[in-house]
Every structure is written in C-alpha cells, then in structure tokens.
Specification:
alpha/beta, Rossmann fold, 2 domains, five-stranded parallel sheet, four-stranded parallel sheet, 12 helices, 14% strand, binds phosphoric acid mono(formamide)ester, Asp/Orn_carbamoyltranf_P-bd, amino acid binding, aspartate carbamoyltransferase activity, transferase
Length: 316
C-alpha cells in the first residue's frame, strides 16, 4: 500500500489525490509539516547516479520529519556483491519503513517490494519507468495550462499535444509520461531518429504517435519535452551528433519559428549544445528549473502516502 512502481498504478483519481496533497504540503506551516512523518525511517537506495531525484526525495522526507539514510552502490556492501534482496532485508531490519530505489535494472522495484514487504517508491528503474518524474512533469504542465489539481480528470488535458523528442528508446521518463498523459486526455508525439524510437505497437499504446519531422511536431505542440541521449545505454548504437543537432536540437531559431509559445521542458540532466542550446534552456519558455522545484512537493506527497498507509512499526 502506498507504493509507486509504475504510472500504470495511477488512476486519474490517485494522481489527483497526490497532486492535491502536494499542494497542501507545499503551503503548510513548516513546523506542522515536520510532524507528519516524525521519526519515521526512509531509506534511499541508489544503484545509479542521480542529482535531482535523490536530493529532492531526501529533502522531501526531511521536510516531513522523517529520518533518512542513503545507501549508494559505490560505498556499500553492494560493491562486495550483496544482492538487492539482501540489501532490502538489511534495511528493513534496521527499521526502514519505506525504500526509494533507483536501479539500472527494469523491474527491480517489484523484486524489492516482494522481498521486503515494504512500500517502494520507484526513483527510476532501467529503461522502464520514472513515475515521480511523470508526476512532477504533470504538475509543471498543469501550472502552465492553468488547470488546478482538483480538476484533474480523464479529459483534463483534452486538446493538448505534448511532443517528447530525443532518445525515446532508452527513456523511462518518456515511457512514464506516455503512459500517464493520454489517460488524462493528452496526445503524446514521440520524435527522434529511427534508432532511438521504440516499437509503439508492442509498447506504449493509445494516445501516442510518432512524427519524425521535429519542426512539424513543434508546430502542433503546446508542450515540448527534450531528452538527453543516454550515452551510458547506447551499447554500440552509433548516433551522428552533427546530424542529430541539425534535425532534433531545440535551438532559438527553431523554437521561435515553430513553437514560440510552447512550454519547453527537460527532465535533466541536460547536455547544453546537444539536444538543447543554452539560449533555450535558460530562456523565457523553459520550465527546466520549475520542474525540479515541483519534484519536492510531489515527493513529499508520495512519501506521506506511502508512510501514512503503512502501519507504524514498533521499534526498539
Ligand atoms: N530527472 C532525473 O531523474 O534526474 P537525476 O538523474 O539527476 O535524478
């Protein structure tokens, strides 16, 4: 209960409840807020590097009064070969009541939840999903569109087209957004070179289409999400970067010509000068820093849900 591994677990009602709780926690008196998870124990288990997700989950937990501990692969017994299951059992024995997991392996959060019985919050698993990112992206989009969390419904985003451009194939952010946004009425357009696009029929499903011409996609989009090429997952796949920039880079000229009013998003980390130029990343249409900011409130809400729903364990 309270776990979040995939956006497939999110009905529009649950997404709405999370967003409303995020609004409430964000504006709550800090001392009141810090009572909510006072002395509850949250473990952050990170097998992959992270700046935004790790820091915001940790700050979110601390803002709610929880005690946190960070276990990262390079400084733990994971380096000696300890399995995910045994690491989870160890954290539970130390009193962890919720585990936030980032893993290079798709599906790892399911295994951890099964072997510990604890609520697991997926902080990104391989090429599978990044559900808290999709929720913070949703909060950013709703603010841009002027839609209140209370109005979230299966048709709330009707008529909105979101283009996601770049390394779709390796992106858990693209998958989570493409699963969540059509359930709220949005159309998602994937754009990028053929080797970086997934087989949609076998994968994502309705409400998602492909447009290889980035400028055509930009012209019909209210929201554009740029993605980094995930060099660490390319596994020998060769991408001509000059050609990539020529066709798929978000630069000032292209954005001004094709999408002068669109919101420009990026989950980060950004590679300036490759998928996006500094002029666009730092420009007036960019929501990149705002996305990061929304991560804190969303992750407070996820932690509050996860721990409110799990009975407080008696500790020595
Ligand atoms: N967006 C995101 O997941 O960033 P980090 O890898 O820095 O957490």
């Amino acid at each position: 209960p309270g776990a979040l591994v995939s956006v497939r677990d999110l009905t529009p009602e649950r997404a709405r409840a999370i967003l409303q709780l995020a609004d409430k926690l964000e504006t709550q008196d800090v001392f009141e807020r810090a009572k909510r998870l006072r002395k509850r124990r949250v473990a952050l288990l990170f097998y992959e590097s992270s700046t935004r997700t790790r820091t915001s989950f940790e700050l979110a937990a601390k803002s709610l009064g929880a005690d946190t501990t960070l276990v990262s692969a390079l400084s733990s017994s994971i380096e000696k070969g300890e399995s995910l299951k045994d690491t989870g059992i160890t954290l539970k024995a130390l009193g962890a009541e919720c585990i936030i997991l980032r893993s290079p392996y798709s599906g790892a959060p399911y295994l951890l939840a099964k072997s510990t019985g604890l609520p697991v919050l997926n902080a990104g698993d391989g090429m599978h999903e990044h559900p808290s990112q999709a929720l913070l992206d949703l909060r950013t989009m709703l603010r841009f569109l002027g839609i209140k969390a209370a109005k979230l419904s299966p048709t709330a985003l009707k008529g909105v087209t979101v283009t996601i451009c770049g390394d779709i194939l390796h992106s858990r952010v693209a998958r989570s957004n493409a699963l969540l946004l059509p359930r709220l009425g949005a159309q998602v357009t994937f754009c990028g070179p053929t080797p970086l696009l997934p087989d949609l029929a076998a994968d994502i499903g309705p409400g998602v289409s492909v447009e290889r011409d980035f400028e055509a996609a930009l012209r019909r989009s209210q929201i554009v999400m740029m993605l980094r090429i995930q060099a660490e997952r390319l596994a020998g796949l060769k991408i001509d970067l000059d050609d990539y920039k020529q066709h798929y880079q978000a630069n000032s000229e292209r954005v001004a010509a094709c999408a002068p009013k669109a919101l420009i998003m990026h989950p980060g980390p950004i590679i300036r000068g490759l998928e996006i130029t500094s002029e666009v990343a730092d420009g007036p249409q960019s929501a990149i820093a705002e996305q990061v900011h929304h991560g804190l409130a969303i992750r407070m809400a996820l932690l509050a849900q996860a721990l409110d729903k799990s009975k407080q364990r008696t500790r020595a």
